[in-house]
Automatic annotation (TrEMBL):
The family this protein is said to belong to: Belongs to the mitochondrion-specific ribosomal protein mL41 family.
Compartment(s): Mitochondrion
Protein name, as recorded: Uncharacterized protein
Taxonomic source organism: Ditylum brightwellii
GO molecular function, one term: structural constituent of ribosome
Keywords, ordered alphabetically: Mitochondrion, Ribonucleoprotein, Ribosomal protein, Transit peptide
GO cellular component: mitochondrial large ribosomal subunit
A GO biological process held by the record: translation
PANTHER family according to UniProt: LARGE RIBOSOMAL SUBUNIT PROTEIN ML41, MITOCHONDRIAL RIBOSOMAL PROTEIN L41
């Protein structure tokens, strides 16, 4: 088989996704095939740097949402509320005369004078 420039370029244009430009090697044009390998899985060192989620941890890992656990789950899967774990809000009797406010105004001075 003879290698001509038109023959090589026609093959190059038809297989453009899997080849690179032809180069001269010992007076013959050769098409080099290069494919980039992309894995959908990460390496072990890369997975250690990811945040721990319930999908990546073992069976007993429970991440939660940052809320308090106000009870427990029984072996039947029912939730029983523990009154000692419930959040208890203590509100002053008269809110109109109470000096402290729940929020700070935006125009509050930064210095503590």
């Amino acid at each position: 088989m003879t290698f001509t420039t038109s023959n090589i370029m026609s093959k190059f244009l038809t297989n453009m996704h899997s080849t690179t430009l032809p180069f001269l090697n010992n007076n013959f044009y050769v098409l080099s095939t290069q494919r980039r390998f992309m894995s959908k899985f990460l390496s072990k060192s890369a997975t250690k740097r990811l945040p721990l989620t319930s999908k990546r941890a073992r069976k007993g890992y429970y991440k939660g949402t940052g809320a308090r656990k106000e009870g427990k789950i029984t072996s039947l899967g029912r939730f029983i509320v523990d009154p000692t774990k419930r959040m208890n809000l203590i509100v002053p009797e008269n809110l109109e005369t109470f000096k402290l406010k729940p929020y700070i105004a935006r125009k509050f001075p930064n210095s503590q004078e």
